[in-house]
Amino acid sequence: MSTENGCVFCGIARGEIPAKKLYEDDDIIAIDDVAPQAPVHMLIMPKAHVSGLNQLDELPDETLAKMLRAAGRLARERGVRERGYRLVCNCGQDACQSVPHLHIHLLGGRAMGAELA
Ligand code: AMP
Questions:
Q1: How many angstroms separate the alpha carbon of residue 103 from the centre of ligand 1?
Q2: What's the 34 CA to ligand 1 centre distance in angstroms?
Q3: Closest ligand 1 atom, residue 99 Cα
Q4: Which of 7, 41, 110, 115 has the CB geometry, 3.0–4.6 Å to 33, for a possible disulfide?
Q5: Cβ(44)–Cβ(71) under 8 Å?
Q6: How many angstroms separate the most distant Cα atoms in the chain?
Q7: Cα 68 to ligand 1 centroid, rounded to whole Å
């Protein structure tokens, strides 16, 4: 699996940087966001370094599917599945992507605004 030196999420995936791990398997990891913007705010990511949505060709389809399935499971485990939750994947500068390692935010636990942006 390719990981990148200096990438914070690669460091978490390798177990070198501490994080609250909520789920882990051979391909993906889910952690609590260190600066939560909702009562439930987790990040779901591949362990392999993929910079973002524009590099999805580097990621096996199976890993992407795993990330989305994990979101549904984690939403149930954290009690937000029925009331609802939002998945956000920022890509690039205009979307304020701050960590260039693909990740999906799972946000829930309160009513969101109707506007996405
Ligand atoms: P984005 O702006 O979409 O790239 O989101 C990056 C997210 O990663 C932000 O919500 C940060 O709070 C979160 N984050 C950055 N460093 C860490 C870390 N070490 N552990 C957990 N979450 C982090």
A1: 9
A2: 6
A3: 4
A4: 41
A5: yes
A6: 39
A7: 18
103 catalytic? Reply is yes
Is 115 part of any domain?
Answer: no
> Could you read off the pLDDT of 10-68 as tens digits, one per residue?
999 999 999 999 999 999 999 999 999 999 999 999 999 999 999 999 999 999 999 99
Q: What angle do CA 74, 106, 30 make, to 5 degrees?
A: 55
Atom of ligand 1 nearest to the CA of 17: 19
Is residue 31, in this structure, part of any structural domain at all?
yes
Instruction: Label residue 95 by pLDDT band (50, 70, 90).
Output: very high
Question: What is the number of domains present in the chain?
Answer: 1
Structural domain boundaries, residue 62: 8-108
Between residues 75 and 3, the one the model is more confident about:
75
**113 within domain boundaries:** no
Q: Are the C-beta atoms of residues 8 and 101 closer than 8 Å to each other?
A: yes
